[in-house]
Amino acid sequence: MASTCKGTKPKVGGVRFRPESHEGPANHVHFEEKLHDSVVMVTQEEDGSFLVKVGFLKISHKYEIMFLLPTSQNLGQGSCCTPLPSHYLKVVEITPVPEGHRMKCEYTAHKEGVIREEMLIASELEDSASVKVTLQARVLDRLHGTPMLLEGVKCIGSEPEYDSEQSDWQGFD
């Protein structure tokens, strides 16, 4: 049976309890609109490269990942992705915006555990101008349910699950 994934954004919020000193019911709960850890996190490393944390993904699923790469001294307005060594990660679009570059990638989760996929974004105007971007995620196996996706990550497909007990292949006698 093929697993399915939904392309909807999860509704994630924080919970804040009212201090006891306030008047009114003691069990009042306030939900925050958005937690900072509910979105794809982009941090700049000491060497000038960027680390993009996309959260939990599920094996054999394909994801669209969108994030903002902040303005970098190494990149100008015209930027492109150099050929990637991995055929599991594909840069779909790089759009210059006032804050930097809006990146749209597709990634197929092909192995379990913590994955790190690297890409090199280069300037189209200067030969030596480039910045390394590392995409990091934790890929869950089929038995660990469906992860809640961060804002900026959308499941766009999955491969059918294979069950060896349901195989029609009987072997050779």
Can you give a write-up of this model?
The chain is mostly beta strands and 173 residues long. The chain has a single domain, classed as Immunoglobulins (Immunoglobulin-like, Sandwich), CATH 2.60.40. Helix content is 0%, strand content 45%. It contains no helices and eleven strands. It has strands at 15-17, 29-31, 41-44, 50-58, 61-70, 79-81, 89-97, 100-108, 113-123, 130-140, 153-158. The strands form three sheets. It has a five-stranded mixed sheet, with no helix packed on it. β3 and β4 (50-58) form a beta hairpin.
CATH architecture: Sandwich
What fraction of residues sit in β-strands?
over 45%
CATH class: Mainly Beta
Helix content: under 10%
CATH superfamily name? Immunoglobulins
CATH topology category name: Immunoglobulin-like
How many DSSP helices? 0
Entry keywords:
four-stranded antiparallel sheet, single chain, 173 residues, Immunoglobulin-like, elongated, mainly beta
In brief, what are we looking at here?
By secondary structure, the chain is mostly beta strands. The chain has no helices and eleven strands.
